[in-house]
Amino acid sequence: VPSAWFSNLVDAQLQLLAYSLAEPTNQFFYFISDSSIPLKPLSFIYNTLVKQNQSLFCFSGADETREAHLLVRSHFPNQTLFAKADMWSVLTRSTAQSLHRSSQNLHELIHHAFNNTSAAPDEFLFLSYLLHHNHANEIRD
């Protein structure tokens, strides 16, 4: 899957989810970058995730998102639920399945709304889509 930093990492993430969901024992799906490698042991992280059973996003602060929020908002004037998060995230199986089922819609949004903008779709798309589609109870900051 072609991808580029600050352009479209979402298609690659969706492809990774598709392959990872094929294995029924996978319960959590991690997206990390070179600068966000967990420092805790995997067993600690896994046990914490099992207890919480929610997807984790690192929400960005209002001061960091204002300009990008307005830019994205200009492409979605009727959308009120926009949130920005760092790229790293942990998805539960049910959240990953929801995104996978919506992959065609997400792909179209990237190419129609984020084309020719300076907003990074991977920072907005998953979190905003999940919030807009009533998954807020599945998400933690």
Describe the protein in words.
The mean pLDDT is 77. The longest helix has 12 residues, at 10-21. A 4-stranded mixed sheet has the order 1-3-2-4. α1 (10-21) packs across α4. By secondary structure, it is of the alpha+beta class. 48% of the residues lie in helices and 13% in strands. It has helices at residues 10-21, 42-52, 62-73, 93-101, 103-113, 121-132, and strands at residues 28-31, 55-59, 85-92, 139-140.
Radius of gyration, taken over Cα atoms and rounded to an integer in Å: 15 Å
Bulk shape: globular
Fraction of residues in H or I helices: 40-55%
> The biggest beta sheet, please?
4 strands, mixed
Distance between the termini: 29 Å
The tally of beta strands, per DSSP, is 4
Write the element-wise H/E pattern from the N-terminal end onward.
HEHEHEHHHE
Unreliable sequence segments: none
- Order of strands across the biggest sheet? 1-3-2-4
On the 0-100 scale, what is the average pLDDT? 77
The percentage of residues in β strands lies in 5-15%
| Structural class designation | alpha+beta
What's the helix count?
6
Helix and strand topology:
Layout: H1 10-21, E1 28-31, H2 42-52, E2 55-59, H3 62-73, E3 85-92, H4 93-101, H5 103-113, H6 121-132, E4 139-140
Parallel strand pairs: 2-4
Antiparallel strand pairs: 1-3, 2-3
Helix pairs in contact: 1-4
Please give a handful of descriptors for the protein shown.
141 residues; alpha+beta; four-stranded mixed sheet; 6 helices
